[in-house]
């Protein structure tokens, strides 16, 4: 990977954006909408977010984000409306393995952000940055095989389905199968030619 290999977990120079969504830092002002979004049953159903996650735990997670980045563990972005900047959801690079230049991507969306392509746009934006300027060589999605909407988001964003990991994780008292999808720099549309500086649209 040359000089693009990440030695530590760093953020983009500024927000990542397109016409549907802005990826930026979480803010204290987001907390009421973060908490409200987490109360939707679909969020804990498919994620590790606890059911009924109380506001003080949401604040603790926000306050812990700089440490998680410094430790190389996780890089968290808020999804925000490009018009009014309202919090719509979250997307993260998590389970980062810097020495192997790979990470998993996780995401969730509040009910008021759904149905307009926000997650697909967010996943494309973060993936392109991570595999070019971020210096990663592989990104993964691990999605409950029953979660058809989330699988569709990954495939629309260009992720390649590799297979099913059977009974690989315990989730809310049951063993579940996860579909493994991945994205490599060579999978990106208009991938930069070797030796050319990557660009982010």
Task: Please provide a written account of the structure.
With 201 residues, this protein is an alpha+beta fold. Helix content is 26%, strand content 30%. β5, α4 (118-131) and β6 (138-144) form a beta-alpha-beta unit. The model is unreliable at 191-201 (pLDDT under 50).
Topology diagram in text:
Elements: E1 16-17, E2 22-24, H1 31-38, H2 42-46, H3 55-70, E3 74-80, E4 87-97, E5 102-109, H4 118-131, E6 138-144, H5 148-156, E7 160-171, E8 174-183
Parallel strand pairs: 5-6
Antiparallel strand pairs: 1-2, 2-3, 3-4, 4-5, 6-8, 7-8
Order of helices and strands: EEHHHEEEHEHEE
The mean pLDDT is: 91
Q: Main sheet, how many strands, which sense, barrel?
A: 8 strands, mixed
CATH H-level homologous superfamily name? Gcn5-related N-acetyltransferase (GNAT)
- As a percent range, the share of helical residues equals 25-40%
Q: Sum up the overall morphology in one term.
A: globular
Number of strands: 8
Portion in beta strands: 25-35%
Number of helical segments with 4 or more residues: 5
CATH architecture label: 3-Layer(aba) Sandwich
Uncertain segments of ≥5 residues (pLDDT<50)?
191-201
Q: How do the strands line up in the largest sheet? A: 1-2-3-4-5-6-8-7
Alpha carbon gap, first and last residue: 21 Å
Overall SS class? alpha+beta
The CATH topology annotation reads as Aminopeptidase
Radius of gyration: 16 Å
The CATH top-level class label: Alpha Beta
Pfam families: Acetyltransf_3
Protein name: N-acetyltransferase
Organism: Paraconexibacter algicola
InterPro entries: Acyl_CoA_acyltransferase, GNAT_dom, Ribosomal_N-acetyltransferase
């Amino acid at each position: 990977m040359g000089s693009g290999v990440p030695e530590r977990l760093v953020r983009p120079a500024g927000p990542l954006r397109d016409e549907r969504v802005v990826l930026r830092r979480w803010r204290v002002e987001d907390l009421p909408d973060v908490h409200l979004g987490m109360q939707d049953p679909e969020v804990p159903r498919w994620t590790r977010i606890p059911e009924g996650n109380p506001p003080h735990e949401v604040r603790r997670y926000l306050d812990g984000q700089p440490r998680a980045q410094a430790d190389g563990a996780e890089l968290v972005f808020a999804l925000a409306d490009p018009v009014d900047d309202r919090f719509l959801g979250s997307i993260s690079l998590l389970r980062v393995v810097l020495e192997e230049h790979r990470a998993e991507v996780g995401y969730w969306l509040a009910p008021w952000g759904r149905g307009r392509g926000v997650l697909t746009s967010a996943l494309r934006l973060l993936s392109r940055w991570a595999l070019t300027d971020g210096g990663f060589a592989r990104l993964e999605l691990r999605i409950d095989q029953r979660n058809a909407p989330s699988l569709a988001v990954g495939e629309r964003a260009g992720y390649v389905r590799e297979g099913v990991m059977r009974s690989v994780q315990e989730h809310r008292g049951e063993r579940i199968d996860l579909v493994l999808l991945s994205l490599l720099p060579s999978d990106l549309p208009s991938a930069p030619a070797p030796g050319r500086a990557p660009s982010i649209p």
